[in-house]
Amino acid sequence: MNQTSQASLPSRHAVSSWLKRMPLPLLEAALVLTWSSGFVGARFSIDHAPVMLVVFWRCVVVTLVLLPFVARQVRLASPAVLLENAGIGLLAMAGYLIGVTQGIALGVPAGLAALLADLLPMGMALLATIVLRQRLARRVWLGLAIGLAGVVLVTHDALAWGNAPLWAYGLPVLGMLSLAVATLWQRQRSNVSRALGLLPNLWLQCAVSCIAFAAIAGTQGSLWPVASAGFALSVAWTAGLATLGGYGLYWLCLNRSSPTRVASVLYLSPAVTLLWAWAMFDEPLSWLMLLGTAISAAGIWMVVRTESRRSDA
């Protein structure tokens, strides 16, 4: 057993070293691509099963796939480290996804729910300023505002006011704030998260979120998987791209950059989501979307430049 562990150790160090050498903009581009895939996966899964059932099984699959690779590290971790990372996971994964998907289930239009969820950079900046007493440069605030204006233009054609009860529109906002709190918590306690490691941390987040998703999905019907190719593809898509790719890259980028920069990069997610939808569902694109993407990119550039200068200083 020891020989196996020792033999695998160099490969783990090699992978870690390779990720550290990879340019941050390349990781951020991959983050935007995989993060936006989650919205497309949710759109695709609606035709095959309840969204919450797909979310539940996507976490089950990730938990089972990662278990052989993380079992030893999880077993050796202290209860305090496990408990804190479990709390971060519940907020980041269960809190965020339940807020967005349940809002849509209650009648909030998907485009409006996505826009409210995309307030993450602003929500994170406000929490950092009010709760953590951090001071952000004026150029950062300006860049965030410009980026948000671009997002509104990109999603303009998809926005509509649905028939959901008024309180339901707050669910995507609460989901966004849940992820913002988890992000700042993870950043402030980065030594605790790194003590566990990226993959064990992701496994733990999925494991504890399974319980929350099961509690909600169980009230809506059976937890048994749907026997169809569409359901299997939905689970595989969201487990591989949105969870392992999206959340994995999110935490990886956060370890190498500031929360404000990581969140601001996600302003490009709506535009990439629309590209996914155009390629997969033949949904139309417009010049307004292109203009909005360019404006969002300008806002992100301002944030990235300002944060980079502050980091160098």
From TrEMBL:
- Spans through the membrane: 52-71, 80-98, 104-128, 140-160, 166-185, 197-217, 223-250, 262-279, 285-304
| InterPro entries, per database record | AA-Vitamin_Transporters (IPR050638), EamA_dom (IPR000620), EmrE-like (IPR037185)
Q: Taking the first listed entry, what is the main subcellular location of this protein, grouped into a coarse class? A: membrane
Membrane topology of the entry:
Multi-pass membrane protein
Stretch forming the signal peptide: none
Q: Where in the cell is it found?
A: Membrane
- Gene3D superfamilies recorded: 1.10.3730.20
List the keywords (alphabetical): Membrane, Transmembrane, Transmembrane helix
What residues does the EamA domain cover?
A: 30-155, 168-304
Family affiliation: Belongs to the EamA transporter family.
User: What protein name does the entry list?
Assistant: DMT family transporter
Q: Which organism is it from?
A: Stutzerimonas azotifigens
Which lineage?
Bacteria, Pseudomonadati, Pseudomonadota, Gammaproteobacteria, Pseudomonadales
